[in-house]
């Protein structure tokens, strides 16, 4: 979610801090007083309030519909997803059922994948927006750790996935590729 979210987050908290500092000074009758102890008290109170707001914004408030669009340009993908991957391995087309769990805050997104033979954790993840075409894609790189019993045919490997979110259907669809030279498609549906 990277640089865009962090900049926006800092701008919001900075603006909220300034507004809170002024309001607290007015409510306490400190407006126009330039004594360091008075300013320090107002600064400390404002910082505490903005810290609580920042924590709540990062964890929960970003999901509220009032913030969607102007503050939060990305969809809430948090939850459990189920679907299939279609891939070609050693010249053979195959299909595998997968479950994905996505954890998301305003500043971070984590993708966890389980199959009957392995699990994957995202190393980094972000959204890629193309406003001209109306695309919102989740892009992440991951490490895949196969069960020990199958490592003779499937080693630990790295990969990247690019999944387009279809809001109407609540689906994620896209492709992935790995450093083992395998590629495939994923189709996922949100469970809850």
Describe this structure in words.
There is one protein chain. This protein is an alpha+beta fold and 192 residues long. The chain is 26% helix and 42% strand. It has two helices and eight strands. The protein has helices at 2-27, 36-59; strands spanning 79-89, 92-104, 109-114, 118-130, 135-146, 157-166, 171-178, 183-190. It has an eight-stranded antiparallel β-barrel with strand order 1-2-3-4-5-6-7-8. Helix 1 packs across helix 2. The chain starts with a helix and ends with a strand. The model has no long low-confidence stretch (mean pLDDT 87).
How is the topology of this model organized?
Layout: H1 2-27, H2 36-59, E1 79-89, E2 92-104, E3 109-114, E4 118-130, E5 135-146, E6 157-166, E7 171-178, E8 183-190
Antiparallel strand pairs: 1-2, 1-8, 2-3, 3-4, 4-5, 5-6, 6-7, 7-8
Helix pairs in contact: 1-2
């Amino acid at each position: 979610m990277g640089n865009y979210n962090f900049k926006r987050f800092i701008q919001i908290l900075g603006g909220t801090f300034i507004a809170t500092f002024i309001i607290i000074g007015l409510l306490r009758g400190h407006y126009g007083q330039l004594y360091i102890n008075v300013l320090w008290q107002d600064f400390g109170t404002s910082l505490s309030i903005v810290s609580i707001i920042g924590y709540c914004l990062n964890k929960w408030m970003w999901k509220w519909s009032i913030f969607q669009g102007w503050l939060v340009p990305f969809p809430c993908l948090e939850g459990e997803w189920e679907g299939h991957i279609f891939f070609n391995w050693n010249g053979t087309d195959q299909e595998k059922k997968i479950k994905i769990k996505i954890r998301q805050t305003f500043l971070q997104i984590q993708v966890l994948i389980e199959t009957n033979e392995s699990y994957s954790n995202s190393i980094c993840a972000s959204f890629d927006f193309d406003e001209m075409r109306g695309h919102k894609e989740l892009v992440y790189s991951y490490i895949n750790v196969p069960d020990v019993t199958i490592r003779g045919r499937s080693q630990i490997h790295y990969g990247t996935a690019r999944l387009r979110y279809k809001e109407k259907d609540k689906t994620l669809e896209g492709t992935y590729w790995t450093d083992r030279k395998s590629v495939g498609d994923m189709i996922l549906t949100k469970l809850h």
